[in-house]
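Protocol step 4 of 5: obtain the predicted structure for the target chain.
Materials: sequence only (see below). No template structures provided, no constraints applied. The aim of this step is simply to have a reference model before the mutagenesis design in step 5. Sequence pasted as it appears in the construct record:
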Amino acid sequence: MRKIAVAYKDGSVHDHCCSSPQLKIYTIKSDMLSKIETVDIAATGSDSFAEIVKKFGIKVLICGAVSPYLKDVMEKSLHMEVCNGVTGDADSAVAAYIAGTLDFEPNMQCEPIEHIHSCSGHGGDWSGID
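Step 4 output (structure tokens):
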């Protein structure tokens, strides 16, 4: 079983992962889509968002802009694949990912001026997390 999540708002990939109001989670079993659920999240920054995706067992995240700190935590500590720089319809993005044709921009980052949360004091201890 594999879970793919999209930072989600109003049917689309949300443009800034840490301020996403929802996650749309797609569960894949035996290469078939078995479940789709949309969950409200109350992420208040990078550490909060990382805790949420960890809780849901996400292995792939599709999102818009992401901070370098959060991307590092998700890839290195949580062993997730992060496909950032994605825009448009969430369901289409997941279908493209599954087909191996998702167009994403791995260098797209959120800029500090665009943050709606404080990035100072990132305090999560993500070392050694499986």
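Step 4 remarks: The two ends are 17 Å apart (CA to CA). Residues 2-114 form a domain with the Nucleotidyltransferase; domain 5 fold (CATH 3.30.420.130).
Proceed to step 5.
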